[in-house]
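Trying the structure run again after the queue cleared.
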Amino acid sequence: MAGHNKWSKVKHRKAVVDKRKGKALSMCSRAIISAVRQHGSDPNFNHALRAALDEARYHNVPNDNIERAIKKGAGMGLGDNYENVRYEGYGPAGVAVVVDALTDNRTRTAANIRLIFDTHSGKMGTSGCVAHQFEHKGRIEVKGVASDEDRILEAAMNAGADDAKFNDESGPDAAWDVYCPPTELHTVKASLEASKLVVRQTTTEMLALQTVNIGAEIAREVIDLIDELEDDEDVKRVYSNADIPESELAKLG
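Done. Tokens:
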């Protein structure tokens, strides 16, 4: 799959996963509130809520926080009216960037995102300017090592998945990413679990249809842009078609 990107590796090397745990908890609560307000509080009939709950459990959000967010979304709390917004733009060297945000103030968020692009030799574009370069996919992270290839690939194909790739990590971070249509995410997950596989996370992502190889100098600029975008309190996820070779990642330290 062309869009299998390497940003997870960059994040591990830069240790931003731990740094952003607090933000992850807040964003999970926002996603639950938004999903409940749009489609109700029953996850059996609300796929967005089911995905938000899966994400919350992955990030170990306390049950009290989850229940509080559901009540707020159901109208038992004032304010906290969040909506999903997507921004698109270009980073250094024309790298395509998609930013998904969850905000209660579109004006504030748009201004912040535009400033970050401008500060890092980028430019925020119009809706649809780069989204066509990405494909919306469901991703299921399954615990496993490289030698589990036959077992996991067979289970993934039987579950109706499109593809599965090993994340090239070792130790407790070793896992396989199973890709499927977003509408089939929970069906494929259930099938994988029925095959006795351990599912760590389910989510949806924008995968680049074609990636752009960049050198170390541009890579540093692109990573700085994405880091600052991800640090914004309203930003949920950032996607890019930048592909940094392992040799260049090593130069970045």
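Strands lie at 83-90, 96-103, 123-124, 134-143, 163-166, 175-180, 199-208, 212-213, 235-240, 242-243. Worth checking whether this holds up in the mutant runs.
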